[in-house]
Amino acid sequence: MTESTSDPVRGSAYGTAPVPLSVLDLVALGEGNTAHQALQASQRLARLVESRGFLRYWVAEHHSMPGISSSSPAVILAHLAAHTRRLRLGSGGVMLPNHAPLVIAEQFGTLEALAPGRIDLGLGRAPGTDGATAAALRRTGGGPGAGDDFPAEVTELIGFLRGDFPDRHPYRAVHAVPGPVQGHTGHPQVWLLGSSGFSARLAGQLGLPFAFAHHFAAQNTLPALELYRSSFRPSAVLAEPYVVLGVFAFAGDDAREARRQALTGALATVRLRSGRPGLIPTPEEAEAHVFTERETAALGGWLDNALYGTADEVAAGLDELQKRTGADELMLAMNSHSLDFRVRSYELISDAYGLPNGSPATG
């Protein structure tokens, strides 16, 4: 449970994969399944990808979305830490406007104590939900502009994690525990997440690694990455820019099944963006659905930017995306209906890249 990778940011690519592969888990919940089953599938998937040489496994924070069971990333990560040994575990991300920085520092300091050297703390400035739910979550009366405090809150959070507030800072005597005050020399690796230029620029200025949500903001990918790289200033944690790119990837034993499962996620996204969030529909329901003009507009380029097909087709798409963007790592996401399909998809992608096939961790 405490064995770690050698580098908190950079990993070694295995097999024929041009860069390390990782997973972004939405803990998607399909019609006919339960949250217990979805979370058990996440445990199964984390153990699988660890055995196949994936670098990291992140869980995304969402709220008031019936089809996504990841409202509490820290709780899920603690469970996954008990069932893995080497895999880096993290948030993709924790939505900082929803939480006090000290609380996040305590939660992720606890995770770091449970799994030393394996914890990533990815931070986002969006609420990860709709406006009404965001208002219910926020610790103050912050409205849509609450994310404007993001740079200051990131700095405050890092101060708690490192225990290095200056002498006259009002929180100089406040400590995140577990943390440095107890003699811990390590702390979670902080990342910034984004889908536009705001966090890209901030990540560069702070010298932090950057994860971009290509899977739902593909039109912004190249401008944001250029802004991050041009803004980058070397720091104590990172000497040069490092980009993780999130991408939807659905690999099936045949192309038809891959498209059927991708379509379930597409329809779920349409409903979410139309203010009708629900469970991930079945493939039969998704195939029978007639998308209206308005729904097609809400969907945007979801299917156009998702990769689906056979494992070789998906691998080719991943390789092309990596070459086009210069990404240092690819983080695969999937919000399909079938829990078994998700596991099988990652097996197929691993096989396509010739990744090692070790035994999952016990426990």
Automatic annotation (TrEMBL):
InterPro entries: Bact_Lucif_Oxidored, CmoO-like, Luciferase-like_dom, Luciferase-like_sf. Transmembrane segments: none annotated. GO terms for molecular function: oxidoreductase activity. Keywords: Oxidoreductase. Pfam families: Bac_luciferase. It is an enzyme of class 1 (oxidoreductase). SUPFAM superfamilies: Bacterial luciferase-like. Residues 23-324 form the Luciferase-like domain. Gene3D superfamilies: Luciferase-like domain (3.20.20.30). Its EC number is 1.-.-.-. PANTHER family: LUCIFERASE-LIKE MONOOXYGENASE. To bacterial alkanal monooxygenase alpha and beta chains. This is LLM class flavin-dependent oxidoreductase. It comes from Streptomyces eurythermus. The lineage of its organism: Bacteria, Bacillati, Actinomycetota, Actinomycetes, Kitasatosporales.
